[in-house]
Amino acid sequence: MSLPELKVLLASPRGFCAGVTRAVQIVSMALKKFGTPVYVRHEIVHNKYVVQKLADEGAVFVNELDEVPDGAVVIFSAHGVPLSVVDEAKRRNLTTIDATCPLVEKVHKEARKNYENGRKTLLIGHQGHPEVIGTMGQIPAGEMKLISSIADVDSVPDQWADHLGYVTQTTLSLDETADLLNALKRRFPAIVKPHQNDICYATTNRQKAVKAIAKQCDLLMVIGAPNSSNSKRLVEVAKESGCARSILVQRAKDIDWEYLFGVKTLGITAGASAPEVLVSEVIEALGKHFNISVSEYVETEEKVSFPLPASLRE
Question: 135-145 pLDDT, tens per residue?
Fold first, then answer.
């Protein structure tokens, strides 16, 4: 019995961004330099496969610093941490390595600049996301307000109007943010924007690639974690761009094969914290169920890289 034909269209860029690559390298290099265990506050990036691989190498993932013994080495995740966590680590003389993505750090600096210049800050982002918690913790409580929807714009106090700036979570949807920003600028024409767009290049590029292939696909599969903001946005972008059936899967073993019944063209991408090995795994699994032909759509070439912390370059 012959296998059904399936055209697989890979979106590129996909998978690891420069910030994730750097964060994973930081953990691996810290383990080599300091030996085991090295503690990591929160998941270094939002991907179970990556976290488990580093745990197997000797990394210990914790929720808070009170789980880290005195004198230990602790790494802050790529999403960034509130200043209170940095201060607590210093108080306890922990050896710290900061794996915060440089693009997230840029958002932190913008928030601090607003505060230093007497401005309140609006943070466009999703409640409870580690990046949002880290950014909110850069300046004193009451100086920043989280905006998650256009409706939230109405809740900003009138007295903030003349001294107001905004920053955004780096992993949002461009379209979603554009609508929210338009609403903000209508109510607060004098609002100070960041020096550069906060939504990161990798988020933008992955969304553009998905937009470009969405209409050609019967189904678009995003490989990524359910707690990965940028992966979830890719599912939404696919649906908004013409592929009504768009799903998020963590890896090949999570695929519901019945859901692929009747699919002729399958689009595949991966969130910025999903390694390429998981894409290869999915394609290999597809080859057992279908006669596949694989082609790739390249939106742009990414050549960004970020330097490692000085303490690991020595």
Answer: 999 999 999 99
Q: Can you read off the two tokens belonging to residue 42? A: 């929160």
Residue 176 annotated as catalytic:
no
Domains in the chain: ranges and CATH = 5-16+201-298 (3.40.1010.20), 18-101 (3.40.50.11270), 103-198 (3.40.1010.20)
Catalytic residue among 43, 131, 143, 240: 131
Alpha-carbon span 118 to 223, nearest angstrom: 43
pLDDT in tens, 6-54: 999 999 999 999 999 999 999 999 999 999 999 999 999 999 999 999 9
Tell me the pTM.
Answer: 0.94
Which among 6, 59, 2, 31 is positioned nearest to 257, based on CA atoms?
6
